[in-house]
Amino acid sequence: IAPDTKSLSAENLVMCFGGLVAVKDVSLTLKPGEILGLIGPNGSGKTTVMNMLSGVLQPTEGKVLLAKDQLTGMNSRQFAQRGIARTFQNIRLFTDLSVYQNVLVAALSTHDGEGADIRTKAALSRMNILHLATEDAGNLSYGDQRRGEIARALACQPSLLFLDEPAAGMNREETDQLMEILRQLSTDLGIGILMVDHDLKLINQLCDRVIVLNEGRLIAEGLPDEVRKEPAVIEAYLGK
Ligand code: ADP
Q: ipTM of the assembly?
């Protein structure tokens, strides 16, 4: 897995669903090797922002750039081919396929067949699930399925990885193991990680920097310890 060194930036993103303005003028950057947390109350626009940053949704206004290259208008496959991979809040593994096959499909979707087996095994190994390669994905524990999802993203050899609630449903031990793996992805491989999670303890422990959304707007940005003391952030969380 060879990351390049490009930063992702979003400029003045707006997303309208009919009359609802779900995201209002959000700008952010994600650098290689950085772990950035995206937090905020339910419905504040976190998933919508992640969807725009990964080509799942086209922004109503604004731009998404990888270094100086425009990604706006591209689909999620084109984002993945440029090194931006993601997981979803709900698990999307093919339950009738083996764990290996699930990850292989992802490896093949962004690169040609050469080296796909190696990329697949490397991704499974990174996530500590290589020993489960021949199991049906549907037979895995919940935590292992979540790891399988991240392995699928890693098989695309991303330089940037977006995770939507990666620890949802995991127990504390599984969450701690996941944190260790994510930290290694950022430090060993230089992967930039953008992560949405409700577990603020996880966010505080793992993230180098945090962005807070409320009602579609970016209301705070900075170190986790500083951001959570800001009155606007406290009010946003207490107001719900
Ligand atoms: P979060 O991830 O912070 O919980 P979302 O990004 O899922 O927030 O949602 C932000 C707002 O946009 C919410 O009001 C939600 O109901 C609305 N929304 C999200 N996706 C859609 C959609 N596809 N169509 C209409 N409204 C949507």
A: 0.98
